[in-house]
Automatic annotation (TrEMBL):
Ranges of residues in domain Heparinase II/III-like C-terminal: 621-817
Protein's UniProt name: Heparinase ii/iii-like
GO cellular component: cell envelope
Pfam families from the UniProt entry: Hepar_II_III_C
GO molecular function, one term: lyase activity
Length: 852
């Protein structure tokens, strides 16, 4: 192809009405043929830099996450010497950031290098909220790698240096500085904490030309450090400003009416329920099953009564998510959900003291200047943010409290509520929804519409030009939910994100239905009519417990979806797990960012009578859109459940590289497991997504690494049949291994509760080895081509006669932090493979319990 033809071809790729859907696929197919450094690559580079920045970001993001092909490098003009830009953390400049590694738009231009000492295959990667330093192994204990950052720092007013980063406890760092042409060593060594830490050391005096961070480790395996930012501090100015801070008066005179002036309880709008429902809810407190749940809410509310919300009132909202906050801001739980529990229990119990305390929470939220968790999101000169999670949750809390407590708020307070809802909440949420197209394709967009619907309903009768705002927000939520929840009732993100998404949208759906005179039953049914299909497929034999998948951090069905579906739909299987979900507190606990936010609307709309819980798992089911297949069989007192995982096309960012993975539960014991996701502030979290961390086959490369699957662009779904006696499933996985394999299928056959046969057939594109990975809470002993483990009076034997070697590792990289064992079966060198692995279970007649 001539140069002019090549340029024309590439230009045509970008001429599309929907670039986010068509550009990446076309571009990747075309550039895969480019020789590195060839003329076509240069043509592409020149064209790329003339594209609108939006298109550049789409391409860069897609190539970084999806493609295994050539990467488009950052423009050369963005690299170079340090730019002399300081980013003040406050308007008084007592602390500044000079290296914002958390902002990839700026971090990609920082003059930084990362090199190996003893670590193998080091790399530096820019994530959306960190710059990550990775290596695949470090055989020698001691110095692993070194980071060098060129600087041009000469600011005598700053006497301290700040370093914010995350690393595991087995790893440490120390610093050296190039000052006025000489090397200055700081002798102190800093060890990781497993979360974000903040290091403050004296700043060397003089002109700092470079900073060196030497990393040492005791951990021999793959590791990642996450850099947030490096900065400077004027410590005397920090102390001086701290002494000038004044605390707010907890009486909030002029905003909260004096108790003697409170009117009878009446709501402003009645978004979720109104004052006429209170008597029925007071009776429900005593109903069997609900009495236990309500006592738990009262216990929580009593605990929250001991908090003085004004003590945590600063320019930013308190949070216990440590990823983006300063060390001095740790150990401060969020206002939003504590306030709702206080407000809910207080108004049902007609407890004036508790109601006043809930109003203090409300005032503290209204008087927080920024509805984000830290100054990092408000840096002058940076557009980075964590997106509108805190704005949404705070808006929702403020709106519901202001609705319930209209009788106790002055007109001035109500006006302040309206202004804050818009300025600090909805305006930011709308910005992010318009800015980030991906939000309209995953659960976050539907979640963020909640505040728009609730806030809009609160405002529409007071602000004359709100117009069609609420209807537009509902329309957006409707479109996103129809994309997110597939036609078989499932999602691709695991039960945690399914329940969390429902937790967010159900209040908005209820409020919209009530405000527009629509049937709540009908509007909930529109989206969750097939939820039972998903819940029964992902369910364990134990009622209320489900399978972990993707970025999941819970194994319990959780949140208000369980009681709401049970109450609105008497035939729903949620009635069969509601009692257990109340008992294990998962209704209240929820998961993720919505932790401890459940059990309120579920109490209002849940059924009056609660049944005894029983198993809901399907004997056999395939979900053709979500990509799951389950077989759950019993034989006498014994049982065996297998969950087999595929995927929809282009799964969300919360999905893992785990297509073809399976999990096994025997007699109620999870034997071969999915690790789920760690808390996101754990520096090991992203490793949980890797293919080798799941029960799959991977290539085993000559350099000792196990590559990841690519995310599928086409549906990858199991096929097969099953009944109470046997199951046979097949999954074509060539789509997710197309860089390394020209064909690959996995077959699972089981005709009893004592044996599973897994057969893997495939052809490597290049002669090499493959590895079969298994993860279990059971410790296995290795013997030739077998691995044998015992748990709860059962002995499991994994037989792989094809294996050339078997390796065993132990770690705690799992959603619940428990110790897990990683078995790896390596093949001999081959090109075409057809390997059979058998898992058998023998049950002892006399049960002996082994703790795992």
């Amino acid at each position: 192809m001539k140069k002019s033809q090549s340029a024309k071809h590439i230009s045509n790729i970008f001429k599309t009405n929907q670039p986010h859907k068509t550009i990446p696929q076309k571009l990747i197919r075309y550039i895969k043929s480019f020789p590195v450094g060839g003329r076509k690559s240069n043509i592409l580079r020149n064209l790329f830099y003339h594209l609108p920045i939006t298109i550049q970001n789409i391409i860069l993001g897609y190539l970084r996450v999806i493609s295994r092909g050539p990467k488009v490098p950052a423009p050369v003009s963005e690299k170079g010497p340090w730019t002399h830009t300081l980013f003040p953390l406050t308007s008084t400049w007592e602390e500044v950031i000079f290296a914002p590694f958390h902002d990839p738009t700026i971090a990609t231009g920082l003059p930084v290098s990362f090199s190996s000492i003893n670590a193998q295959r080091c790399s530096l990667q820019h994530f959306w909220c960190w710059t990550n330093l990775l290596w695949e192994s470090c055989p020698s204990v001691g110095d692993a790698a070194s980071l060098r950052l060129e600087t041009d720092l000469s600011y005598p007013q700053y006497d301290k240096m700040l370093f914010c980063l995350s690393m595991i406890p087995e790893t440490s760092i120390r610093f050296e500085f190039e000052v006025d042409g000489k090397i200055y060593k700081h002798d102190e060594v800093f060890w990781g904490t497993g979360s974000r830490l903040e290091i403050c050391i004296p700043a060397p005096k003089g002109h700092i030309c470079a900073i060196y961070m030497i990393i040492s480790t005791k951990y021999k395996f793959e590791q990642m450090l996450s850099l947030s930012w490096f900065g400077l501090q004027n410590s005397s100015l920090v102390k001086q400003l701290q002494t000038s801070i004044q605390k707010y008066d907890s009486s909030w005179t002029g905003l909260i009416k004096p108790l003697d002036n409170w009117e009878d309880i009446h709501f402003q709008v009645g978004l979720l329920f109104n004052e006429t429902d209170l008597e029925k809810l007071r009776e429900k407190r005593l109903y069997p099953g609900w009495s236990d749940h309500y006592r738990y809410l009262e216990e929580k509310a009593t605990i929250y009564m001991n908090r003085h919300p004004e003590a945590d009132l600063t320019a930013f909202l308190p949070t216990d998510d440590r990823r983006y906050i300063r060390e001095s801001e740790n150990d401060r739980t969020p206002y939003h959900f504590e306030a709702l529990v206080l407000g809910f229990v207080g108004i049902i119990n007609d407890d004036k003291q508790m109601m006043q305390h809930a109003l203090r929470y409300l005032m503290s939220m209204l008087h927080t200047e920024n509805w984000v968790q830290s100054a990092e999101q408000k840096l002058t000169g940076s557009t980075w943010s964590t997106r509108c999670f805190m704005e949404e949750m705070t808006t929702t809390s403020v709106v519901l409290l202001a609705d319930w407590y209209a009788f106790a708020l002055t007109d001035r307070a109500k006006d302040l509520v309206r202004q804050c809802i818009w300025d600090k909440g909805l305006a930011i949420i709308d910005r992010d929804m318009m800015k980030h197209d991906y939000m309209h394709r995953i659960n976050q967009g539907a979640w963020f519409c909640r505040a728009g619907i609730l806030g809009g309903l609160y405002l529409e009768n007071a602000w004359p030009h709100m117009g069609r705002y609420v209807n537009a927000k509902f329309g957006t939520m409707n479109k996103i939910l129809k994309r997110y929840i597939m036609r078989d009732g499932g999602v691709d993100e695991g039960i945690g994100y399914f329940c969390m998404t429902a937790q967010a949208v159900i209040p908005a759906l209820v409020a919209y239905a009530r405000s527009r005179g629509k049937s709540t039953h009908r509007i909930i049914n529109r989206y969750f009519k097939k939820a039972d299909n998903y819940l029964s497929t992902l369910s364990s034999f134990e009622p209320g417990k489900g399978s972990v998948d993707g970025d999941c951090r819970t194994e319990n069905f959780c949140g208000d979806i369980v009681p709401v579906l049970a109450g609105l739909f008497p035939g729903s299987i949620c009635n069969d797990i509601l009692h257990q979900c109340i008992q294990n507190r998962s209704i209240y606990n929820v998961t993720g960012s919505l932790i401890n936010s459940g059990g309120l609307i579920g109490f209002v709309y849940g059924p009056d009578k609660i049944k005894v819980s029983k198993p809901i798992v399907s004997t056999f089911n395939i979900m053709p859109k979500s990509g799951f297949a389950v077989s759950a069989r019993k034989s006498g007192t014994h049982s065996l459940r297998i969950l087999f995982s595929g995927s929809k096309p282009n799964p969300s960012s919360h999905a893992h590289y785990d297509k073809g993975a399976f999990t096994v539960e025997a007699d109620g014991t999870d034997v071969f497991v999915d690790r789920g996701m760690l808390q996101y502030d754990d520096p090991r979290a992203l490793l949980a997504k890797c293919s080798r961390m799941h029960n799959v086959i991977t290539p085993y490369l000559p350099n000792g690494s196990y590559p990841d699957q690519n995310l599928p662009e086409k549906r990858v779904c199991p096929k097969g049949s099953g009944n109470e006696q046997q199951v046979e499933l097949t999954l074509d996985l060539a789509e997710v291994w197309k860089e390394y394999m020209s064909s690959y299928q996995r077959h699972i056959i089981s005709d009893s509760v004592e044996k599973i046969i897994i057969t893997d057939h495939g052809t490597l594109k290049k002669r090499g080895r493959v590895a079969f990975h298994l993860h279990s809470g059971v410790k296995f002993d290795l013997d030739a081509y077998k691995a044998v483990g015992t748990v709860n009076s059962m002995t499991f034997e994994v037989t792989a006669k094809w294996a050339d070697e078997i390796l065993h590792f132990e770690d705690s990289l799992s959603f619940d932090g428990r110790a897990l064992h990683h078995l790896v079966f390596h093949s001999k060198e081959l090109e075409t493979f057809s390997i059979e692995t058998t898992i058998s279970v023998k049950r002892d007649s006399q049960p002996t319990i082994q703790m795992i």
